[in-house]
Amino acid sequence: MTESKKSGGWLKHAAGAFITVACVVVIARQVKLDEVLAAIRHFDWPYLVFGVAFLAFGYSLRVLRWSLLLGATGAPVRFGNCLAPFLGSIALNNVLPLRLGDLVRAFVFPAAMGVPKTTATSSLVMERLIDLMTLLCCLAIGLFAIRTAQVPAMISESALTLAVLGGLALVLTFLFSGALARALEKAAAGQPAGKRLAGVLATVAGLLRGFEAMSRLRVLVSALLISMLVWVGESGLFYFMMRGCGLDASPPMALLVMAIATLSTLVPSSPGYVGPFHLAAFTAISLVGGSAAQAGSFAVLCHLALWLPTTLAGAIAILFRPELFRVARGAKRSEVPIN
Predict the structure, then answer these.
(1) Which pTM does this prediction carry?
(2) What are the phi and psi torsion angles at 215 (to 5°)?
(3) Dihedral sign, CA of 89, 73, 162, 63?
(4) Which long-range contacts does 175-180 make (Cβ < 8 Å, 24+ apart)?
(5) Are 230 and 61 in contact (CB under 8 A)?
């Protein structure tokens, strides 16, 4: 590893830590700790059960969607085969920096699933694009339903930019991935055997072939419909957590708060999205009329309600399927040339 790569890694970690600390400081200046602790003590805990049930529903649909995207490419997968790798990657995202769980799902777990790495990577990119578009739809629905909420210009401008970029990426994927894949395959075939460029071209073509299969109209519409239900499930957690905090919540209000808080996880931070998530949730609750104490307690409790069940579920899934890592290690050893 070169010195520049090492310094780049440290810079990313330092930037994430700085953003986390800055967000926490901003919240701390707006709340009184004793009021937040009192609000947490008065939380109506039965609502947590309903919220986690909705969260589980949403994550079941996430796994179903991933199996649908992979299956569209002809990969030999089913819901049960995708469950442990998906939950395991979420748990790793929760405890490792820089969303490393996504990289593990794309490059490590596929060996045990019998899925090419290029196909897994294509599915991950498609999943993120679809999630982005449906989250922005949730944000728009929430804003339309709650016209009294004054969203800061930075959030609305960022949402508009993401909508344009995400929509453009989906359209380009839908229209041109197949043609680009064929062009790159032809270019790779014209390269001398064993040349590195041929391998790179073939890999990119494989990614585009995955996009082509996953962006077929029937598959794309099904994935979008499932995604809407995914975020309805997640907004259910936010709704019941808001009710537990004593807020007069409504489903559109929960959609708005969920969309703002979830989009904040795109910002680099420490593992578990500590800081940006809390500041976004705090801001969103304040926008819909919650007090500082309610906003602070909601941010803490909602983060725990999201983080703890998914981390435990993922850890258990990895524990019961140790081959997810073992098969990948074996495949890597088999690729080492024997002199």
Answers:
(1) 0.88
(2) -100, 10
(3) negative
(4) 177/208, 177/209, 177/211, 177/212, 177/215, 178/208, 178/209, 178/212, 180/205, 180/208
(5) yes
Non-local CB neighbours of 212 within 8 Å, separated by 6+ positions: 177, 178, 181
- Both tokens of 14, joined, read 């330092």
Contact, 206 vs 113, CB < 8 A? no
Instruction: Give the pair of three-digit tokens for residue 174.
Output: 């839908």
| Helix ranges, the chain (H) | 3-28, 33-41, 46-72, 79-95, 100-107, 110-113, 117-145, 153-189, 196-214, 217-244, 251-263, 276-287, 292-320, 323-334
Nearest to 60 by CA among 277, 232, 281: 232
Question: Which residue has 């299969």 as its token pair?
Answer: 213
Q: Give yes or no for a contact between 288 and 257, defined as CB atoms under 8 angstroms apart.
A: yes
Residues of the domain holding 57: 41-324
Total domains in the chain come to 1
Specify whether the CB–CB gap between 175 and 281 falls below 8 A: no
289 DSSP 8-state letter = T
* Alpha carbon distance 189, 201 (integer Å): 9
Residue 17 is assigned to a structural domain of this protein: no
Residue 14 lies in a domain: no
Task: Tell me the per-residue pLDDT of 122-149, one tens digit each, with 9 for 90 and over.
Answer: 999 999 999 999 999 898 888 888 876 6
Question: Distance between CA atoms of 193 and 276, rounded to whole angstroms?
Answer: 49
Cβ contact 82:257 at 8 Å: no
| 111 is a domain residue | yes
What is the Cα–Cα distance from 57 to 324, expressed in whole angstroms?
24
Q: What is the pLDDT of residues 188-246, one digit of tens each?
A: 888 887 678 888 888 999 999 999 999 999 999 999 999 999 999 999 999 999 999 99
Question: Is 330 inside any structural domain?
Answer: no
